[in-house]
Structure formats: C-alpha cells, structure tokens
Design brief:
- It is a single chain.
- By secondary structure, this protein is of the alpha+beta class.
Length: 791
C-alpha cells in the first residue's frame, strides 16, 4: 500500500518532505541502462516511455501545466501531462489526475515506500480480497454547501485571528501564543486536530470548538488546502457563492469552479442507509499492488542472512516473513457489485470474455432486453457493463445467455449470497504498476539496478467475520469486537486455532473453519501448520491487529468497509506508531480484562486490546476530516449496543475454542505440538496447563523468542532440517551421476555443465557433512523442520 496525497495545484518536494536528499545524478547511476538521459537534465524510461524521471528541484505547476527545473545553471522544463508519471530521485511519484466527474485536476503524489499488509488466517467473509482493493469505488464526490456564506465568512475571519494558546490542559510552554492557522509551517493535519475535541484540551475549549458550525470548519480546512503564501490575508476574494433568483446561493466556488469534497462509505445505518464521511482535503486513495488473496506460500528468513540495504530502512525484525501469491486467478465474491456502478473493477471484469462464473443467473436476450429497457436503473451501470449487455441484446447469434454483475442466481426465490467469478490477478495485468512500485523503492533505498528489491511483510492484519445473533437460523452472537483489535500471541493464536466463523455467505453455518482457516484443504494434522505458523511469529516478532468485517457489534453493519480503509490508515502511520507498546502506553489501545457477571467469569481478555477514540482521532484523522464521527462510542465499545449479545458472543468464542482444542487431544495432535502451542491447547480445553492459566508469566514466557532459541525442541527442528538438507544434496549427487552415465545425453550434459555442477554439489555435501553445526547456526531464526515429518 503506497499512500497518496492531493498536492493541489503546485508541488516542490523540498516543501513537502525536506529530509529527501536524493539527487538526479544518483538516479542516473542507479538505473543505468533502464533509462535514456536527455540533454535538458531529465530521463525517460526505456520500458515504459510514459515514465519520466526529473531532478530533485523540479517544480510542478498545474496552472501552467509545466514541470520545470534548473540544469547547468539554465532553466529547463517539460509539459505536465495526465498520461505520464513523473518520478523524483527519492522515488516519490507525481501524476496529474482528475479524481472524478466535476472535480478539478489535481497533482497527486505517491510515496516511494509502501506498507506490505499481510492478511493471514482470515475466515471466509473476513476481507482477504478487500484489503487489496482501491478506495475509489467506495468514494463519492459532492459539492461543498455553505447556506450562510457571508455570516460563515465573518466567523472564519474571527477564527483565523484567534489565538489558540489556551486550548491545552497542560501546555508545554504556558502562556505561549499558537501559530496562525495559515502559517506555512502548520500542516492541514495540525489545523484539523486544532478543531477536533480531544482529551488533551480543556473542557472549555472542547465546548468552544464543538459550537463551531460544520460548514465553517470545512471551509477553514478547504482554505488551508488552497491557500498560497502570495495570497497573504486576501483569501476572501478567491471564494464566493453565486446568486440564484436574486438570492445568495449555497454552492461554494473557488475562482469559477465549484469546490468539491470526497466522501467515503464506512458501514450502514440500521435502516440500511449508507454512513458517508468526508475525507481530508489532502487525501488521495493509496496505490495498492495486490500480493495475496486466498492461498499464499511464505518463508521465514533470519535477519542475519539478508542484506538490510535491500529492504525498507525502518522495517526491523529479527526474522522476516516473505510471502508469495500461489494463485493465477482469484475466486472473488463481489458483494457490492449488486449495487450497479459501485464495483467498477468487477463490472469491467464482467465485460471481458473468457470468464468463469458461479452462482450468477444466466439471462436470455429477452431478460437482458428488459434490463436495458429499464433505462434509469440500467444507466447506473458503468460503461463497460452497459456496452456488454447492449451488445448481447443487439447480436443475433451465440452466446445464448449473458451474465450481469448485479444479478446473482436465484435460489429458492432469493438471490444467492455467494456469487463468484475468477478474476485474473491484478498484479499480472498491471506490470507497469508493479514496475513503478519497484522503481520507487529502489531509488529511495539507493539499490543498484543489478540487485533485487526485497519487500518482506510489514504489518499483520488478519480479518474476522462478525455477526449479530440470528435466532431463526440458530446462529449465536459473534460480534464482541470493535473495528480493530490487537492481541498478543497467546490470545491471537487461540483465535487462529479456532478460526471461528458465524454467518458468512461462503459457508453453510457457524463454527470453525479449521486451524488457520485451512480445514477443508489440509491433508496433514492441523498441529503441523500451527507449529510452523506460531514459531514463525515468535521468531519474527510480528504483531497481529485484526479488523472487523460484517458487523461491529450486533447493530452496526460494516460489510468490508473497515477492511478497505485500514490499509490506508496503516500506510499513513509511522513504523513506531504501529508498535503495540507505543499504542498501549499512549492510550491508543484499551486492554480488555476478564470480569464477573452473576458469579460467572467472562473471559473478555481473550479479545485483547481494542482501539480507543484517541486512536481514531489521531490515525483515522489522516484519512477523514471528522474522524470522531466515523466510529461512535457504541462501535468502539460494542457492549453498549447490547450487553446480552456481548456476553453471549464471548461465551460462544470461549466455548468454540474449547471444543476445537479438545479435538487435538482426540486425534493425538497435542503430543506433536511445540511447547507454547501445547500449553495453549491445554488452557483452551481445560482452563489451565499444569495448574497455570494464560495470564501466568511462565506460560507467556513460552511465547518469547529467547525462550524458543534456547530450547531443546527448537534445536531438534534445526537438526531435522539439517539432516533433510544432507539427504537432499546426496540425492542431487546421485541424480547428476546417473545422468552423466547416460551416453546418449553427453551433449546435453555438456550444455548444462553437469560435470561442473556435480563437483560443486559434492563440495557442498562435503562441507555440510564435515560441519553440520555451522549449517545449524546459519538457520537459527528459521522455522526448521518438524521432526515428525522427517522421513
């Protein structure tokens, strides 16, 4: 996820990010033959001629549609065009875009470095696909309304002139004046925080800013977004409303164009209406490169075995997880495509040939003609879907049926809740996007062209499917979670072991989907995968933050909207801000504790930590202009929606975890579990392990990296891996020798240099057999090999 920003009408990198010290000569040296350097001091990519590389002092001006810089003391430049991407020496990327119909052209910048968001162990309906989808489809644009324009402008004047030094409960410098709102050194985010209630502010100040009309706050944010130093105090002349029928209108205009703002859906009201929230004026949807969907292969690599200069400079783990998508096509369930025109990617995919569909209604020409003749609703579709359906109606030959993205198959008189289609992997269909992502990171890290760019996992963001109780379907409550929870490894793996699902369109009922959600696909004992997964997390130090899909509490339906927006938030957090220790210490996370209810202990601690209003204000405030309204107190604390459902949901979780754990005692898997997992299974099944509970320091100590590295059982895994390595290389020697003995393949053996490779393989075998301990030391920090799988 590469965060993007709306830079308005002009941009110079040094004003936005003064710490970027990369130069154009460095860029030329790093990219070498990939680019063609032009005499005027810029370069063009040889593979993609619409990618331009410009110097670090390049100035982008939307009004003039120019990119200008100084080269050898002479001013130079090139046109600014919407069909090009401009890359700076630091890897920062600029494009000229028109966000949507009615909005003005903008300069959109995209970071060189992205955040690799990994979504493992996510049950059906938990948002595995949605984490990779762009926010664009979920956004809507609308005009800025100011029905009391003149009065609002007077209030804006007063607020701009006001000193805000009285806001803090505990000011760092008592009596000091605040910076002016339009001070170039004050960011838009700083201004937004200034007008958002906070526990850090006095009660009087919070009451004051709460009394400011929403339209006035929005205008100040808009003004801050548009303001340029040469305006000085003359900002009012740039904004106006027209007169309509002799009376002042209400649509705000900047110069001659209407001022537009963007809104994002985050869930639904209880009556089904959409919950729409305005986005920050400098927000632009992140650029996303899909890395995973349903099936991923991964490897855990010790940091000592890697060249750190090839990775993000601030991503620091003792071992790193690298993941690879195993699929060519993704089995998508486009839930929102039933809303015509909403899911633009799905409608585009449906308009192409060669698709595989499941649970969609085959429509005859007469049926499709009826859809087309319903002109008002037909017009909601995007152009590709409309053209496909129109073309089908107008054709007289085969095919005999057509599929509409808004028409799932009818089952027992109702549309199927599980319509599917196979989507080609987006990263394979968008090689230019992949290329830009790699180029940006390469430049930022200063990696030479001949070396690889390594992108391990940065953040672990599994999803969970929540649902309210459905008494008729005998599905219990399963929505005690807020929008985002952090769980330490013991509690996180209780969830991973159970992989609990309630009501998902992809499943036939509530229950467990199997350890790590792999129940239907795993031919090994589940404990084998659990051992490997838990060990990988312990060794690497990744922390798990789970996101809600379906519902937040029993009343607030969110579908996949949280899954869509969380990557945007995470990519805009500094790496230290993602650390649980920081978030807990600074009040961004709230710990849930067990409590008594009528003499019964409710194990709420299994839910871990949940985000607080402070988290929402700070981090969602980097996306939304009014973050406090996105998640209400009832959403952050679901027990306020229905205490009965909250208690039932926790009981359901604990009960299912117990039943799932007992299965490991029945199949003998518990005996093959590594010690921390074995302790966890005992506690889930029986409430204790040798008299110790999950809160016992001795139990929690089993989940530390230090405990693992010093253990005999971990060394046994490394020894098993070493023995397998020896057997593997021996088999290579035998295979090479057998091939070299085949006289009819002598020419092929020469071409493949098999004699030379045999010598090298024998040397490697001799080294390994002569010093197995050296190899063991080299793989400390990997997951080794489960001795029970060793042949």
């Amino acid at each position: 996820v590469f965060p993007s920003f709306d830079h308005g009408e002009d941009f110079i990198l040094d004003r936005f990010r003064g710490d970027a010290k990369h130069t154009f000569p460095e860029l030329v040296a790093l990219l070498g033959d990939r680019i063609e350097v032009m005499p005027d001091g810029y370069a063009v990519d040889r593979l993609y001629p619409d990618i331009f590389y410009v110097p670090e002092d390049a100035e982008f001006n939307l009004t003039k549609q120019s990119v200008s810089w100084t080269h050898d003391g002479v001013g130079n430049g090139i046109p600014l065009r919407p069909d090009r991407t401009y890359v700076l020496p630091s890897g920062y990327k600029l494009e000229m875009r028109k966000p949507s119909v009615g909005q003005r052209w903008r300069l959109i910048g995209t970071n060189a470095e992205g955040t690799y968001c990994h979504k493992p162990c996510t049950v059906s309906g938990g948002g595995k696909s949605e984490i990779s989808k762009s926010l664009v489809d979920a956004m809507e644009a609308g005009p800025v309304i100011m029905p009391r324009f003149e009065a609002d402008m007077e209030l804006v004047e007063q607020l701009l002139d006001r000193d805000y030094g009285d806001r803090a409960k505990n000011p760092r410098v008592p009596g000091a004046k605040s910076r002016p709102i339009l001070d170039p050194g004050r960011s838009l985010g700083s201004v937004m925080r200034l007008y958002s209630p906070s526990d850090d502010f006095t009660d009087e100040y919070n009451e004051f800013i709460s009394s400011i009309p929403r339209s006035v706050k929005d205008f100040i944010f808009t003004l801050k977004r548009y303001w340029k130093p040469d305006w000085g105090t003359d900002w009012r002349s740039r904004f106006r409303v027209d007169r309509v029928n002799g009376e002042p209108g209400s649509l705000l205009k900047y110069r001659l164009a209407s001022v537009m703002t963007s809104y994002l859906r985050v869930g639904f009201e209880q009556d089904g209406s959409w919950r729409m929230f305005s986005l920050r004026k400098d927000f632009a949807p992140a650029t996303k490169l899909q890395r995973e969907d349903d099936i991923t292969a991964s490897i855990t690599v010790p940091a000592a075995r890697l060249d750190r200069s090839l990775m993000h400079p601030e991503v620091d783990f003792p071992s790193y997880k690298f993941a690879q998508n195993c699929e060519y096509r993704l089995f998508q369930r486009p839930d929102d495509a039933i809303h015509r025109g909403y899911d633009k990617q799905t409608e585009f995919d449906f308009s192409r040939g060669g698709n595989f569909f499941s649970n969609y209604e085959p429509k005859t020409r007469e049926e499709v003609k009826a859809i087309v003749d319903d002109a008002i609703r037909f017009d909601y579709f995007t152009a590709p879907m409309k053209e496909t359906l129109l073309g089908f109606v107008e054709s007289e030959s085969s095919p005999s049926y057509a599929i509409s993205s808004a028409h799932p198959r009818m089952v027992d008189g109702s549309p199927s809740e599980n319509p599917r289609y196979l989507q080609n992997r987006p990263d394979l269909e968008n090689p230019r996007g992949e290329y830009l992502g790699e180029i940006g990171a390469r430049l930022y890290r200063r990696i030479p062209s001949e070396k690889p760019v390594l992108n391990p996992v940065h953040a672990v963001l599994p999803g969970r499917r929540n649902n309210p109780p459905d008494r008729n379907a005998k599905i219990g409550a399963l929505a005690p979670f807020g929008p985002i929870h952090y769980q330490e490894l013991p509690e996180l793996f209780m969830d991973f072991i159970a992989s609990l699902t309630g009501k998902s369109p992809s499943t036939t009922g509530a229950g467990s989907e199997g350890a790590l959600t792999k129940g239907p696909f795993n031919m090994l004992l589940p404990v084998v995968d659990l051992n490997a997964a838990l060990l990988s997390y312990i060794l690497s130090g990744y922390e798990g933050f789970s996101t809600a899909a379906g519902y937040v509490g029993p009343k607030f339906k969110v579908a996949h909207d949280v899954s869509l927006v969380v990557p945007e938030v995470w990519s805009r957090m500094f790496l230290y801000e993602r650390k649980p220790a920081f978030l807990i210490a600074d009040g961004y996370l709230e710990r849930l504790e067990d409590f008594e209810e009528n003499g019964e202990t409710i194990p709420a601690s299994r839910l871990g930590y949940r985000i607080t209003q402070k988290f929402v204000e700070t981090f969602f405030g980097r996306v939304f202009s009014e973050p406090r309204s996105v998640f209400t107190e009832e959403m952050l604390k679901p027990e306020l929606q229905s205490r009965e459902d909250y208690l039932e949901a926790i009981r359901n979780i604990a009960g299912t975890q117990k039943n799932v754990a007992l299965a490991y005692f029945e199949d003998g898997g518990v005996e093959a579990a590594i010690p921390p997992l074995k302790a966890l299974l005992h506690i889930m099944a029986h409430g204790h392990c040798e008299g110790k509970t999950i809160q016992d320091p001795e139990i929690r100590g089993l989940f530390s990296r230090e405990s693992v590295l010093s253990s005999d059982w971990y060394r046994a895994r490394l020894v098993a891996k070493t023995e397998l390595r020896v057997r593997t290389i021996r088999s290579h020697v035998v295979a090479l020798e057998e091939f070299l003995e085949r006289k009819h393949y002598e020419k092929e053996a020469v071409r493949l240099r098999l004699a030379e490779r045999l010598v090298q393989t024998k040397a490697a075998l001799a080294t390994l057999e002569g010093s197995p301990e050296a190899y063991i030391q080299s793989i400390i920090g990997t997951i080794g090999l489960d001795p029970t799988l060793s042949p």
